[in-house]
Amino acid sequence: MVDTVLYLEGERYFSYRILRGVKNRFGSTNEIGMFEMQDKGMSEILNPSSILISEREETPPGSIIVATMEGTRPLMVEIQSLTSTSVFGLPRRTANGMDYNRLTLLIAVLEKKAGLSLGNQDVYINVVGGIKLNEPAIDLGVVLAAASSYKNMPIPKGTVAIGEVGLTGEIRSVNLIEKRIKEAEKLGFKTCIIPENNKKLLKENYKLDIIGVSDILDVMKKIGLK
User: pLDDT category, 25, cuts 50, 70, 90?
Assistant: First the structure.
């Protein structure tokens, strides 16, 4: 009965808000607006990617940047992971900003296909900035962050990870790959890790180094985690 339905999303303890259209009778719902709550009200954030990674100066173990899509807008978002030895019989898995079931699946793939012994480890994943990410293209970033924390080895600075992880450990291609790469290039990143099938179809040349990977073991070897 209505022409437009808008959701204003945000976490209680974060100042960022996302305005999302879930119904638009006369236009697209594939766009979002990002705002920050200030003393004068909500102010538009013109470049959300730079805000979400502005406090990232060093690259400690367990931290990586992923390129996700909100509608047709690419966003660079930091994913952090912490692994620690569990003091209880059943290790905890905590996902803040992503689907819990997806996290448990990715941990199982890491154990089976990458040989990481996470059965006695508590694993925590946090998406920085209170953003909620649902698309499979963040899978590669999640597994690399968890592996980096477990091995206590930082991922090389200036690296962006893009890719879906399958149950057999393969890195599957994602859509809108060139938009994601251009956003990473604009923000000054040096390396972009993408699925090998996506790399084969790239039509443009980019200033950043593009690494194509086929499976989890392949990517861990190429960035020095294996």
Answer: confident
**Who contacts 27 (Cβ-Cβ below 8 Å, separation ≥6)?**
21
Q: Rounded to an integer, what is the distance from CA 102 to the centroid of its chain?
A: 13
Between CA 226 and CA 224 the distance in angstroms is 6
pTM of the model: 0.83
SS3 assignment, position 150? helix
Radius of gyration of the chain (CA): 18
- Distance CA(138)–CA(136), nearest Å, equals 5
**What angle is formed at CA 11 by the lines to CA 155 and CA 134, rounded to 5 degrees?**
55
CB of 139 within 8 A of CB of 99? Answer: no
* C-alpha to C-alpha distance for 102 and 142, rounded to whole angstroms: 10
**CA 189 distance to own-chain centroid:** 15
The 3-state DSSP class for residue 105 equals helix
- Answer yes or no: is pLDDT of 11 > 60: yes
Structure tokens at 68: 């996700």
26 burial class (0-12, 13-18, 19+ CB within 10 angstroms)? exposed
